[in-house]
Amino acid sequence: MSRTRTLVASLVILFGMTCTATGQWKKLDPGTDASFRGLDVVSEKVIWASGTGGTVIRSIDGGKSWSVFKVEGAEKLDFRDIEAFSERTAYVLSIGNGKDSRIYKTVDGGESWKLQFENTDKNAFFDSLAFWDEKHGTAQSDPVNGRYVIYATTDGETWSKLPSEKMPAAKEGEAAFAASGTCIVTHGNQGLLLITGGMDARVLYSADRGETWRSSDTPLIKGEGATGIFGIAVLGKRGVIVGGDYTKPAMNSSNIAYSLDGGKTWSSKREINSFGYRSGVTFVDEDTLVIVGSGGSDISTDFGNTWNRIDDGNWNAVDSKGRNAVFAVGPAGAVGKYSFPAAK
User: Fold this and answer.
1) Is residue 330 part of a domain?
2) How many Cα atoms occupy the beta-carbon half-sphere of 317 within 13 Å?
3) How do residues 280-324 score in pLDDT, each as one tens digit?
4) Which domain CATH number covers 115?
């Protein structure tokens, strides 16, 4: 065999091994062309997602089949976040100024929805939900009068505003991106983390369910309206934030950072990455990460030291409950389930 043919054969083998080792997304048909940004993988069987046109979808067989629900009275709303606890119980949050920001709850698997919260502040714009358990959760709005707005429930039914005096002031031009349903996330029994973008890219951290806060700077790109942090995931002491500039999806610097102290401090492992803008991130296990964005998706099996491209598709959010339950959602009804390569 000639040297050229040997080289080509070696490249083909290497390329094949890379593709096989990376795994792939299996495209699923949810039965709607709504665009999705809310996603909650409850278990290997139960998956909920939410999106445009007041749409919620649910699978109770691991993504093989889907039920599609249109929340009555919310047909013109965009549900950017969903938090679920079983095949019957879920909360969903819509975004928008004033009364367009709402929270609905179902306890019968999506057949009916109760309006629990309707924003009355014309300056507020809610972005995300986060829960410690079925009855204790929070909802977060962009800043009003220089402070982020946090509402909380302690009974899973009623919502009240938390005091904002002990929260760090929002900087001019700083806000949150309702891009992946993770503007705010819980951590452990008491922790709460809020990510920001725009003129700054910070992580705000509370150790007492939003009563008091501290802020942490991050190395992610900032300074323009389209820059900052778009997604966060925390598992134990490990944390990951992703983002970039969504108007420049191919720009591959300052778009990911890591934490080793549960989200209190953040640092990057390298200035340039192999991927561009990313909006969602999930832990599959303590070492395995999957990130997604409008320009594709990637996987790391060594906590971000190295990355492999999965695809160049268009995804908004990703969530998982272990290796057999990694799902992503995106525009135009995009839903995918990730398959790891078969063990050899």
Assistant:
1) yes
2) 28
3) 999 999 999 999 999 999 999 999 999 999 999 999 999 999 999
4) 2.130.10.10
